[in-house]
């Protein structure tokens, strides 16, 4: 039998080849930019929460008759849309709050 060789990898080689984050970055080909150093999922939740809050406030304003734009909107001065908009804004704020938790 021939001599037995053991192959030792340096720490950098081991992390670079087998580390789960390195594998994900190689698959994506880029690093995902995150707001406030959070995870990508929390960044997505933050963006969705902000959009939902703004849309809910618009719908609530239209439903209450405070925002009369656009003129052809079916939501204008319809209290049902004030309630739907308020609930959407609250849900959006909840998503923003959840995304900001550590």
Structure in a nutshell:
This protein is mostly helical and 102 residues long. It has 4 helices and no strands.
Describe this structure in words.
Helix content is 63%, strand content 0%. With 102 residues, it is an all-alpha fold. It has a domain of 68 residues. The N and C termini lie far apart (57 Å).
Secondary structure category: mainly alpha
Q: Provide mean pLDDT, rounded.
A: 79
Strand content: under 5%
Enumerate the spans where pLDDT stays under 50 for 5 or more consecutive residues: none
What's the story with the biggest beta sheet? none
- Computed over alpha carbons, the radius of gyration is 25 Å
Count of DSSP helices? 4
Number of E-type strands: 0
Shape: elongated
Termini Cα gap: 57 Å
Helical content band: 55-70%
Succession of helices and strands = HHHH
Any chance you could write out the topology, listing elements then pairs?
Elements: H1 11-18, H2 20-28, H3 40-64, H4 79-100
